[in-house]
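Please produce the structure of this protein holding phosphoenolpyruvate.
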Amino acid sequence: MNQAVGWLGSRLLLKRLRDVMATGAPAQARLDQIVRLVAADMVAEVCSVYVMRAGEVLELFSTEGLNQAAVHKTRLRTGEGLIGDIAAHCRPLALADAWSHPSFAYRPETGEDIYRSFLGVPIHRGGRALGVLAVQNKTQRSYADEEVEALETIAMVLAELVSAGALINPLEAQTNDGLSLKPGRLDGITLNPGLAIGEAVLHRPRVTIRQMVADDPEAELARLLTAVSSVQSALDDLLASDVIAISGEFREIMETYRMFAEDRGWLSRIREAVRTGLTAEAAVQKVQNDMRARMREVTDPYLKERLHDLEDLTNRLLVQLSGPETKSAPDHLPENYVLVARSMGPAELLDYDRKHLRALVLEEGSPTGHVAIVARAFDIPVVGKVKDILNRIEPGDTIVVDGDNAQVYIRPGDDILETIRHSISSRTEQRAQYAALKHLPATTLDGHQITLMVNAGLPTDIMAMDEAGAAGVGLYRTEIGFMVRTNFPDVADQAALYTKTLDLAGGKPVTFRTLDCGGDKALPYFHVEGDENPAMGWRAIRIGLDRPAMLRQQLRALIMAASGRGLSIMFPMVAEVAEFDAAKSLFDLELARAADAGAVLPTEIKLGVMIEVPSLLWQLDQLLTRVDFVSVGSNDLAQFLFAHDRGSPRLGRRYDPLSPPMLTVLHQLVHKTQAAGVALTLCGEMAGKPIEAMALLGLGFRCISMTAASIGPVKMMTRSLEIGPLAELMERLRHGDAHSVREQLRLYAADHDVVL
Ligand code: PEP
Ligand code: MG
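Below is the modeled complex.
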């Protein structure tokens, strides 16, 4: 291969390719010509193009050097042979000795046995392989990075030809064995609950690049720089706008995102691509293609999210370069629409009109992804990780998004639509009923005052607390604020966040739980070596006590934030009283330090523990003389009580918290805390389900904490309940031997008109 294939060589070749593309010749003839040109220019004995056909099969479409008889005959499945491997991973493969590669699959009809070295690159769009472009040489040689880059650039030009649809029917590439037009149900993961119907709008940048090869690279560079600065200033405007002001978390996400717009690596890669002879648009697209290919390899969820942010920016840049008619959010959107995207950045979502946006469906996406956090603030259902949705859906199709069950129905039949419409309207009605309860007290029919609190982790949850009319925050999961950041927040950052939380709570009590990371809650910048059982491993207070500086910083920030007002802190996963003592002494050190510095201290301080680890149940007498309150983390408590992995799909609902063992533990906690005069609350999922909340009230709980959305249904149950007779029933049930007492409780509610 010609070692001089540098930027200049490829620029000349690109010009020639453009001329070929511009001829009106049939697509196959243009492809054959391109293959010949590339082989000659790169001094390769072989140049071949494989195109992806329906059913994930790569067909040899054109070759210079291999047997012509193999064209349209040789086929490889994705993943099969070197060609299949490149398509499967969407990444190049350069091999001095192709034969010794484990994926090598010899096809005798091609006559390729005399070629030793091999360089292949994917022809791709949006990270999806459309085909493979490969060159081969007889001699054993190593291909330079520059040569790989040159071939990748050529593959981009070919991607235009392949995706234009003249080589194969574009529907063939899309239909995935004809599945596309059938109705169907796809499963994903819940990123935000709720139910919605709408017309599908596919979020794809509509940028078609008209010119790939630049006439004047200097002028292209100048265009690029102008576009970059316009995108940057548009982001500055967005940051200054009201929409961002709604939440600090939101703002922070956008600020991180804005930093990417100045990422030197990203910009210099685009500049380099312009120098190879591409137009600014083509260069941006090339870098975007490379990035998508890289994204497929990345498994770290945090890194994946950051790469999505970069992709979002790339789209903005493409839109800027190609003019307003190409912007990704169309001006005319259907009355009720559901946005469907492979992935999306937070700013992209903001480009869409929110008034008529009913739901969001993502092929990728994760609960901590920025777009999911923003969508939650918009209160729309979001389902993520819906495999293949973009292949299965056409714009304008009717789509139902069931965020509660993590399901998406495409082109649903009339029966499904009828059921869903009915369900949506009864939910709307129910919401109105719950909203009407907002200012009414959570008092039972026999006069017991119940305190309903919310579980929160983001400022938006505190706003939801007010909306729901809750009495305060029973559990503030501080780790959520840590999880959405790029670096470990320092004391000042943490203090600012907690101050804001207290400000937003407007005087209502907030119980902060110290960092409960580890287990399933990984912090991107704090690596915890994998334990065999992470839920029982190095997590929560165990990390805090082993890394006292970390815990002390958090306690310091909390003391600063609560200056002049009440402060309530609880420690997660405490297994023995000694751990509470150790944590409390760290708190006392920080309090003394603040006092020495002359700071205004919190007015009333309450320290408590979460009851999550059963061992602590046998030290209640000692514990209750030390703490101001205890809060039952029923999710973890049930997990450890039944030795039942709370995330295991196989165990599912095997053990019911509404069963004698759990009810007896809870009863004991009520009894002991009452005797000791220590406040008791429960903040696990149990609190938010009306039937379980009813059981808790029957056992003697008077304060429970749940997600804001559960406040309405639980308040409605509370206001329809008489605790007296239920308490007697609970006493009988907890002494029984049933696997579950759920059914008896359901019957009790039905008999006594308790609204569940
Ligand atoms: C619990 O375990 O019940 C709890 C509230 O904590 P988390 O769900 O955050 O572990
Ligand atoms: Mg827990």
